[in-house]
Design goal:
Strand content: 5-15%
Strand order of the largest sheet: 1-2
Distance between the termini: 32 Å
Oligomer: single chain
Largest sheet: 2 strands, antiparallel
Radius of gyration: 28 Å
Number of strands: 2
Helix content: over 70%
Length: 134
């Protein structure tokens, strides 16, 4: 008499064949590519702003801004104060501007790449992709 455990052991040793399917990617939806690239750009914008903030905090904590300020004052005879130009509000404003520009560029780039791929598919036939049922 065989038990349930024996039956399960027999099933696990029996090798099932994985079914393989080969599909061809012949079209990338334009609006899906735009939405996905916009989402990636939003993530990159958040990373950019946080990175600017952290770098400014590290540079400020190490005293590099003060030393650079002293250097600029000695070079310009006290006419230019670097600390008035490089402050946390100015750094965060620059980070926001870069993040917004990056958001626009990456979103447009995603749309352009989708369009170029859809045009190239007419010549090449698309990408051949293999899938298995594991």
């Amino acid at each position: 008499m065989s038990t349930v455990a024996d039956k399960l052991a027999k099933k696990s040793t029996h090798k099932t064949s994985a079914k393989q399917v080969r599909l061809r990617l012949v079209y990338v939806d334009f609006w899906s590519a735009v939405k996905l690239s916009f989402l990636a750009a939003v993530v990159m914008a958040v990373v950019t702003i946080v990175t600017f903030f952290l770098i400014y905090m590290v540079v400020s904590a190490t005293g590099l801004v003060g030393k650079a300020d002293e250097l600029f004052k000695s070079i310009s005879d006290g006419g230019i104060a670097l600390s008035s130009i490089i402050g946390l509000p100015q750094v965060m404003a620059m980070a926001a501007i870069i993040a917004i520009l990056n958001l626009v560029v990456v979103t447009v780039l995603g749309a352009v790449v989708a369009g170029i791929y859809n045009l190239a598919v007419k010549i090449t036939g698309g990408l051949l992709i293999g899938f298995t049922s594991n």
